[in-house]
Structures are given as C-alpha cells and as structure tokens.
C-alpha cells in the first residue's frame, strides 16, 4: 500500500484542489460550531423561561383567595 500524499505540503495542496477542500471543511466546521452555540443559547433561554413560568404558577397556587363580599347599602 502506497500513501497518496508523500508530504504534509502535498496533503495541504491536494493536487491544486486544497483551497476548495479546506475552505469547505472550514465552512462546515464553522457552521457546526455556530449550530452548537445557538442550540446551547436556546436551551438556556428555554430553561430560564420555564423557571419563570414555574415561579409564577407557584405564586398563584400559594395565594389564598379572598372572599368576595357584597355591599348591602
């Protein structure tokens, strides 16, 4: 078995196609990182929103309803 590239510089150049290959790799990895960061922010925002909603529900259930009295004037 013979290696396709004999040096690191040949591997980077990839037979004059290196610019296209490595730019595609960079774009793909960049988009994956952006997607991961976006998903993490969305998750954190959702968790924060759910905590606020849960706190509001807890406040509503702990409030004692005041009886409504009619004025008889």
Short description:
With 73 residues, the protein is mostly helical.
- How far apart, in Å, are the first and last alpha carbons? 104 Å
Low-confidence parts, pLDDT < 50 over ≥5 residues? Answer: none
The percent of residues in helical segments reads: 55-70%
Residues in β-strands, percent: under 5%
Name the average pLDDT. 90
Q: Count of helical segments? A: 2
Spatial extent as radius of gyration: 31 Å
- Profile the largest sheet: none
Structural class: mainly alpha
Summarize the helix and strand pattern as letters: HH
Shape: rod-shaped
DSSP strand count: 0
Itemize the secondary structure elements and their pairings.
Elements: H1 8-13, H2 18-62
If you had to describe this structure to a student in words, what would you say it looks like?
With 73 residues, this protein is mostly helical. 70% of the residues lie in helices and 0% in strands. The chain is built from 2 helices and no strands. The chain is rod-shaped, with a radius of gyration of 31 Å. The mean pLDDT is 90.
Considering the chains and any ligands shown, give keywords for the structure.
2 helices; 73 residues; mainly alpha
